[in-house]
Design a protein that fits this description.
The protein contains 14 helices and two strands; from the N terminus they run αββααααααααααααα. With 318 residues, it is mostly helical.
């Protein structure tokens, strides 16, 4: 009887909970349907990577990949791995993303720490607004700005350098200079937006920690090192893990708009390779295989980074 009364009580509690919160579950239907229809259902088309895909036959009726009349579903992966172009775009993607990580990841942390130390609130808000505005500009606009700034003839920066007897400098036409410009523009565009996250984390720090540090004789830099940074470390770790998960990912618009024929050996990344070979040349199966390989590597980096974070006592992202 006691067991029945307990189960009856749980059932009544569940019904009461559903009556109170059913609207929330109804509201979840639309976003869940969106992700199901536009995110998960299209994933089934990765089978193209294992087929001799024919656009007129469709995904499911196209035959499985064959080599010399024999079934070989890894045909397109092997073709990609034996291609010189593939290793070139793989190297470029990794190098550019690694530089973005090394240079771009600490930038918003440093900026957030500096803004947090500013005593003038009005100037702090004005500066924060100015530095995160570039986030809302598309790479099409930024590439146009870059051409006006860095063009060897007529570019604003080269005109200024010319007055000091320097230049012209081919910022967008020499490999190393192009990489530096690419990374620098990326830092400039996203640094302010990332700062918002860290400033929000800093706002949540208990003020008593700073007061205790002052009592112990800590100066401004000591408080940053021993209070602020340890307090926002979980946020830093989570964002670092997410950035490591994108180490082989690449945006299309950024390299595509900034690249030109003279720097393609360092500017051609997986996204532009997929567009050039897959869409323009019609080799859909090959580029699907490349994209699947890219996604698997990104997941591996994400899982390894999260596991290492948890091993060293951090929270991780799951």
């Amino acid at each position: 009887m006691a067991i029945q009364s307990v189960s009856l009580k749980k059932r009544k509690d569940n019904l009461t909970y559903i009556k109170r919160t059913w609207i929330l579950y109804v509201m979840l239907v639309l976003p869940m349907a969106f992700f199901l229809v536009f995110r998960y259902v299209p994933m089934t088309n990765i089978v193209i990577a294992f087929k001799d895909y024919n656009i007129f036959q469709g995904v499911w009726t196209s035959p499985w990949a064959h080599v010399d009349g024999r079934l070989n579903i890894f045909k397109w992966f092997l073709q990609a791995f034996t291609s010189k172009d593939f290793y070139n775009v793989l190297r470029n993607t990794f190098v550019l993303n690694f530089l973005d990580l090394i240079i771009g990841f600490p930038a918003p942390i440093i900026l957030a720490l500096l803004l947090n130390e500013l005593p003038f609130r009005l100037f702090k808000k004005f500066t924060q607004t100015i530095v995160y505005l570039p986030h809302f500009l598309s790479w099409i606009i930024i590439s146009g700005i870059a051409i006006q700034l860095f063009a060897p003839s007529g570019g604003v920066l080269n005109i200024m350098l010319g007055k000091f007897g320097i230049g012209p400098v081919n910022f967008l036409m020499e490999n190393n200079l192009w990489i530096g410009t690419y990374v620098g523009l990326g830092v400039w565009k996203e640094m302010g937006w990332g700062t918002i996250i860290y400033l929000a984390a800093i706002t949540g720090i208990n003020p008593e920690l700073y007061e205790s540090a002052e009592v112990d004789g800590a100066g401004r830099w000591r408080k940053i090192w021993h209070v602020t940074l340890p307090s926002i470390r979980p946020t830093i770790i989570v964002l670092l893990i997410m950035n490591l998960g994108r180490i082989l990912g690449s945006d299309f618009d950024r390299p595509y708009t900034l690249a030109n024929a003279t720097v393609m050996n360092v500017a051609d990344v997986i996204a532009t390779y997929v567009y050039r070979v897959g869409i323009k040349s019609g080799q859909f199966a090959l580029t699907t295989a490349v994209g699947l390989f890219q996604s698997v590597i990104c997941v591996i980096f994400l899982v390894v980074a999260n596991s290492l974070a948890r091993k060293f006592g951090e929270r991780g992202i799951w």
